């Protein structure tokens, strides 16, 4: 059913693509309905049997709080089998040790009457079930005692106790019964819900008290069988918990079974300790535990009977289908089956999400194709259509009232048409053509040549304007198509990341844990998220010691040695609860580091400069150093340049291609304002792993790289963004070296020497003369020299950004610990 609804959501408008998938989903949905119907019948039968046993169950041989609580929860969760459960509980009460059928029937009737009254006022809810059960039990029991005039303080206390037990059992059943009613879609139960389920099963077992088959007591067999199941699934904690709960409830049902609590708890713990073997080892643990305590507690007959009961429980346990054990394991937290079910659910969610993202990516790709088809196909026919429309307009205004119309257009059509096209060609090449410049041969062909010339010049002006706007629309369509294609590519990459299978890295986690614990570190949890080269991500929760900084001094160097790649601390978060734990995320250390410095001044010493700069790590292993100069000066120019940098940074961080990001930025700046506002963009994208640098220079001044005593100029001929609708983007790629100093500046600094000087040579000499390697000092020194050259006068906004690339040196060297081997990385699964 879930697949069909998913197909309905995803398939709108894509019937051709999803037709086969829908057919498969429909058949799977039909099959799923049959399976659910079969399973629902089995659970319904089980609930009816449970109702029968709970109708017979009693506490202290006089209290029966189970049946009404069970029926009340069934009323809200499985109303379709309510009457069958009621009949089963009624039949069970008839077979009880002390007859309580009349009380049970009366309590059910009172409960239903109160419930119907609440439904009439639309106030019925499952949360009211415990109160309704308490009220029904208390009122019926109190009324019965008052009728027989047998009300004492003791009987009043017992009535209250039974009512309170019914209330508590209702709360417990509300948590446990949904496991059997197919209303839970996930296989994850809390520990409290597991305990409620155990209490429900133990309460059902009390309905078998007094059933004996030879030397075997049925409730003892079922209790030990239950212990074996939970011990195999959940280990010693669950085995002991089941033993305590079942032993307690059985001892309440029969005072002679008080020793069962310790016997079952010890047997469950011993059986759970041996769960790593198989069913036989678990059965051996339970037999050993029950036999040991039987020798101390009972007589020889009791020991023999207890042994027979254990053997019968073991036989049932060994005959239990594996599917039942696996189903139970899915509900128990911490088991491999539960983890696998959670991983399967997460995988389904991931696949569905990736499918939706891929679908949207395909939508954007199709839209991009459609826009490109609109701009490319039938271009020639459109031009002929426009020329024909132009000719018709001229003919209607000049030839329509001419007496030679039939002679020109009917008898000499091709000659007249050629004459018109020649005249249009002449006007296209020379719009200011006058009447005196009309060739004599034209006058021989047409008697209204001057009038045709005037009309054609007017129509050509309209035609030219129309063609201009059509070209604008075509260029906009091209841009939109490119942008849609870029978005499609980004979403496709995202879908690939989502669909990437989670890898089982348990061995690597265990290897890291053993290595760290051998050093004496207290490690709480280790989660290896990724071991891809250059994209390592490991999260460790450990107990830290203030002032020692084990993360950077010990853990990171040791991880670098184990993995074979430099690992550094990405972020660290101390827990606020005061437990002494911190969460540390380790990741791949960059091969290079970038240090930056900035210096600038506004024109005339003003407060706002029209220049903006940005130095930011984009998150994909690249570091961006950007500089923008807005048109003019002041606050408005600064806003324009800052906007350009912010938009470009966000587009690049989203994963968009550099050229497409520049074109998108250009279109945004053109649409933002009707005024002629533009901005230069000078950006260097430095790869932190291999130092390859891509320069995007849009209308900006040259940048310079100082490598030792050599200065290299980087320039490109591109107009600023926001002027033309279509710009050509030239990217310059240069590999940098460790120790290189990158200098980027606006025109206020580059144009400082004036027009009579070779600016590039002058700036190279200026940069060569600065001997400092600190980026901030370098920027301050260069700006100061420009000030001195202009005698302290600031003629334009001036900004210089200096970046220095250095090979990263780890703060702490790696070290080898005896017995630790290099980790083998798993293959990436896509």
Automatic annotation (TrEMBL):
Entry keyword Hydrolase: yes
InterPro entries: Bact_Sigma-Reg, PPM-type-like_dom_sf, PPM-type_phosphatase-like_dom, SpoII_E, SpoIIE_N
A Pfam family hit: SpoIIE
PROSITE patterns: PPM_2
Record flagged with keyword Transmembrane: yes
Domain PPM-type phosphatase, first and last residues per copy: 595-805
Matching SUPFAM superfamilies: PP2C-like (SSF81606)
Coiled-coil residues: none
Keyword annotations of the record: Hydrolase, Membrane, Transmembrane, Transmembrane helix
A single MF term (Gene Ontology): protein serine/threonine phosphatase activity
TM helices/strands, residue ranges: 43-75, 81-114, 126-144, 156-182, 194-213, 225-250, 257-274, 280-299, 311-332
Residues in the signal sequence: none
PANTHER family with a match to the protein in the record: STAGE II SPORULATION PROTEIN E, STAGE II SPORULATION PROTEIN E-RELATED
Protein name (database record): Stage II sporulation protein E
């Amino acid at each position: 059913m879930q697949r069909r609804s998913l197909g309905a959501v995803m398939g709108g408008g894509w019937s051709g693509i999803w037709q086969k998938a829908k057919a498969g989903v429909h058949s799977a949905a039909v099959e799923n309905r049959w399976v659910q119907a079969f399973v629902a019948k089995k659970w319904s039968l089980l609930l009816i049997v449970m109702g029968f046993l709970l109708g017979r169950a009693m506490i202290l041989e006089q209290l029966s709080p189970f049946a009404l609580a069970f029926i009340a929860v069934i009323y809200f969760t499985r109303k379709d089998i309510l009457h069958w459960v009621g009949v089963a509980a009624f039949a069970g009460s008839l077979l009880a040790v002390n007859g309580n059928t009349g009380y049970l029937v009366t309590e059910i009737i009172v409960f239903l009457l109160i419930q119907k009254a609440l439904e009439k006022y639309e106030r019925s809810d499952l949360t009211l079930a415990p109160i309704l059960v308490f009220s029904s039990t208390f009122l019926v029991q109190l009324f019965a005692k008052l009728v027989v005039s047998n009300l004492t303080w003791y009987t009043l206390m017992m009535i209250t106790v039974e009512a309170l037990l019914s209330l508590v059992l209702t709360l417990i059943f509300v948590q446990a019964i949904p496991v059997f009613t197919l209303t839970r879609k996930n296989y994850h139960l809390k520990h409290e819900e597991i305990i409620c389920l155990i209490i429900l099963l133990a309460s059902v077992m009390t309905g078998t008290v007094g059933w004996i088959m030879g030397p075997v007591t049925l409730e003892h067999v079922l209790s030990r069988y239950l212990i074996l199941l939970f011990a195999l699934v959940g280990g010693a904690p669950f085995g002991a918990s089941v033993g305590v709960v079942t032993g307690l409830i059985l001892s309440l049902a029969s005072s002679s079974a008080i020793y069962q609590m310790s016997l079952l708890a010890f047997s469950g713990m011993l059986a759970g300790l041996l769960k790593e073997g198989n069913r036989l080892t678990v059965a051996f643990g339970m037999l050993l535990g029950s036999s040991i305590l039987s020798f101390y507690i009972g007589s020889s007959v009791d020991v023999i009977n207890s042994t027979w009961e254990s053997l019968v429980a073991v036989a049932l346990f060994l005959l239990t289908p594996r599917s039942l054990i696996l189903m139970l394991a899915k509900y128990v937290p911490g088991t491999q089956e539960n983890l696998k079910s959670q991983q399967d659910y997460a995988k389904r969610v991931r696949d569905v999400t990736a499918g939706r993202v891929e679908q949207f990516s395909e939508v954007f790709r199709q839209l991009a194709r459609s826009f490109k088809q609109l701009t490319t196909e039938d271009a020639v026919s459109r031009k002929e259509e426009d020329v024909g429309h132009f000719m018709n307009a001229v003919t209607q205004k000049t030839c329509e009232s001419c007496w030679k119309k039939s002679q020109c257009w009917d008898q000499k059509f091709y000659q007249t048409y050629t004459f018109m096209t020649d005249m249009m060609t002449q006007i296209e090449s020379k719009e200011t053509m006058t009447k005196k410049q009309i060739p004599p041969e034209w006058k021989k062909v047409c008697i209204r040549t001057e009038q045709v010339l005037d009309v054609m010049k007017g129509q050509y002006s309209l035609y030219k304007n129309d063609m201009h706007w059509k070209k604008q629309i075509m260029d906009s369509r091209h841009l939109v198509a490119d942008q849609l294609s870029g978005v499609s590519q980004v979403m496709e990459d995202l879908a690939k990341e989502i669909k990437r299978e989670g890898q089982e890295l348990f061995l690597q986690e265990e290897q890291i844990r053993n290595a760290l614990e051998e050093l004496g570190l207290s490690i709480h949890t280790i989660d290896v998220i990724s071991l891809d080269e250059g994209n390592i991500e490991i999260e460790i929760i450990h107990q830290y010691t203030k002032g020692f900084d084990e993360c950077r001094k010990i853990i990171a160097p040791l991880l670098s040695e184990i993995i074979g790649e430099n690992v550094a601390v990405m972020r660290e978060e101390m827990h606020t609860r005061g437990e002494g734990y911190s969460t540390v995320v380790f990741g791949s250390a960059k091969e290079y580091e970038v240090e930056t410095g900035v210096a600038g001044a506004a024109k005339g010493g003003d407060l706002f400069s029209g220049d903006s700069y940005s130095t930011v790590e984009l998150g994909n292993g690249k570091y961006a150093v950007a500089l923008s100069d807005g048109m003019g000066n002041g606050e408005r120019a600064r806003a324009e340049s800052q906007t350009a940098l912010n938009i470009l940074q966000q587009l690049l961080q989203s994963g968009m291609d550099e050229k497409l990001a520049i074109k998108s930025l250009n279109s945004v700046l053109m649409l933002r304002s009707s005024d002629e506002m533009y901005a230069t963009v000078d950006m260097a994208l430095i790869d932190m792993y291999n130092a390859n640098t891509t320069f995007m220079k849009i209308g900006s001044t040259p940048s310079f790289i100082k490598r030792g005593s050599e200065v290299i100029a980087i320039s490109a001929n591109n107009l600023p963004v926001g002027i033309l609708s279509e710009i050509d983007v030239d990217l310059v790629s240069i590999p940098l070296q460790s120790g290189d100093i990158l200098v980027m500046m606006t025109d206020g600094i580059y144009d400082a020497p004036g027009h009579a000087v070779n600016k590039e040579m002058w700036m190279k000499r200026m940069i060569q003369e600065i001997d400092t390697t600190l980026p901030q000092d370098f920027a301050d020194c260069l700006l100061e020299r420009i000030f001195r050259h202009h005698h302290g006068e600031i003629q334009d906004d001036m900004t210089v950004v200096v970046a220095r690339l250095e090979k990263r040196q780890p703060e702490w060297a790696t070290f080898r610990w005896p017995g630790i081997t290099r980790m083998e990385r798993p293959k990436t699964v896509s």
